[in-house]
Amino acid sequence: MGRYEELHQLISSFEADFRKFYEKQNKAAGTRVRKHMGELKKFAQQIRQEVQEVKQKMKDEGQ
Fold first, then answer.
1. Per-residue pLDDT of the chain (63 residues; tens, 9 = 90+)
2. Rounded to 5 degrees, what are φ and ψ at 26?
3. How far apart are CA 27 and CA 20, in angstroms?
4. Distance in angstroms (rounded) separating the CA atoms of residues 39 and 14
5. Do residues 33 and 21 touch, judged by C-beta distance below 8 A?
């Protein structure tokens, strides 16, 4: 579950900027939120690739 913990920590690290943008309407925090979302997208893509590789490996071993 290491990847899950990494995901959780990544999202938790965004909280302050989300609050600043959505609650306090800080424009600079909005820029950081967009940056954070890009990081999240990259991380999600890595996870998707890993899952696909594991599924393929399981399929190959099952034959």
1. 799 999 999 999 999 999 999 999 999 999 999 999 999 999 999 999 999 999 999 999 876
2. -85, 115
3. 9
4. 10
5. yes
At 43 the pLDDT is: 97
* DSSP for residue 63: -
| The residue type at 10 | L
What are the backbone angles phi and psi of residue 23, rounded to the nearest 5°? -95, -40
Cβ 2 vs Cβ 17: under 8 Å: no
What is the structure's pLDDT at 11? 96
* DSSP state, residue 24: T
What span, in angstroms and rounded, lies between the C-alpha atoms of 8 and 38? 16
